[in-house]
Amino acid sequence: MNYGIDQNSSRRDLPHGPMSNTDPNSRGAKGEDWSDVIGAWTRLDVRDRQLAVLRNTFPYWAVGYELDSAGHCTWKAATTWPLTLEMVTAGVLRELQRSDPITLMADLTSQTEMMGEPST
């Protein structure tokens, strides 16, 4: 599912490991220079940052957003695997559509709790 977002676009992967502090000149857990990463992150549009958080938090969901002609945003998520009868009976939905990323995150959290960890 592609909600108008090019998922094959070039992007820089973030270094792994926790940041030691919020100093932009600090180094990551493996000595990575975080100043470039922080700079790139702050240059992203707020919606793109919210999208990155949702995609990283819920990797088993395809998450995106669409803008209508008036500029209103609709946030969408769809499962990336087939639902079982047990999941559907428990209330897991194939697709979610919400007006803001916070509501979508709350509902994805509930859906993920209902379904448990999907088997791949």
Structure description:
The protein is of the alpha+beta class and 120 residues long. The chain is built from 4 helices and 3 strands. The chain has helices at residues 34-43, 46-57, 85-90, 101-115, and strands spanning 61-67, 73-79, 95-98. Strands 1-2-3 form a 3-stranded antiparallel β-sheet, covered by helices on one side. A hairpin with a 5-residue loop joins strand 1 and strand 2. It is flat. Mean pLDDT is 76; it is low at 1-22.
Question: Notable features of this structure?
Answer:
120 residues, alpha+beta, 3-stranded antiparallel beta sheet, 4 helices, 36% helix, flat, disordered N terminus
Secondary structural class: alpha+beta
> In total, how many beta strands?
3
Please tell me what the overall shape is: flat
Percent of residues in beta strands: 15-25%
Strands of the largest sheet, in order across it?
1-2-3
Whole-number mean pLDDT: 76
Spans with pLDDT under 50 lasting ≥5 residues?
1-22
- How many separate helices? 4
End-to-end separation in angstroms reads 18 Å
What integer value in Å does the Rg equal? Answer: 17 Å
Order of helices and strands, N to C?
Answer: HHEEHEH
Helix % is 25-40%
**Largest sheet properties:** 3 strands, antiparallel
Which secondary structure elements does this structure contain, and how are they paired or packed?
Blueprint: H1 34-43, H2 46-57, E1 61-67, E2 73-79, H3 85-90, E3 95-98, H4 101-115
Antiparallel strand pairs: 1-2, 2-3
